[in-house]
Amino acid sequence: MVLHRVYNPSTGDNELSRIFPSAITIATGDITLTSDSEIIQYIDPNGTNRAVIFPTDADAKNLIFVVKHIGTNRRLTLDGNVVLRRNQVAWLHFDGSIWRQIG
Q: What does the pLDDT look like over 34-63, one tens digit per residue?
């Protein structure tokens, strides 16, 4: 497993990278995740509303993604049905047919 450095803006730490693979993305367009994408996604929509598209292949069954909006006043729309604004977090699970928000 490859661990990536994660910057936590509230503490300045990179501690989560020791436990979970994660990625920080400054978006230049809509974002497409794959079954091999990091579990934790920190996404800055970079001044424009963006969509995050989740995988639906057989390898995606039972995957969980955690997505945090780290930008400013724009929206991230997750798989067409969950909308995140600044500093919001969503957990999503794929049951083999649909992505559902957990909690």
A: 999 999 999 999 999 999 999 999 999 999
Q: Are 50 and 25 in contact (CB under 8 A)?
A: no
What is d(CA 33, CA 59) in angstroms, rounded to the nearest whole number? 12
Q: What total number of domains does the chain contain?
A: 1
Across 19-35, average pLDDT? 91
Amino acid identity, position 96: G
Domain range spanning residue 94?
15-102
Length of the chain: 103
Answer yes or no: is 7 within a domain. Answer: no
Amino acid in position 72: T
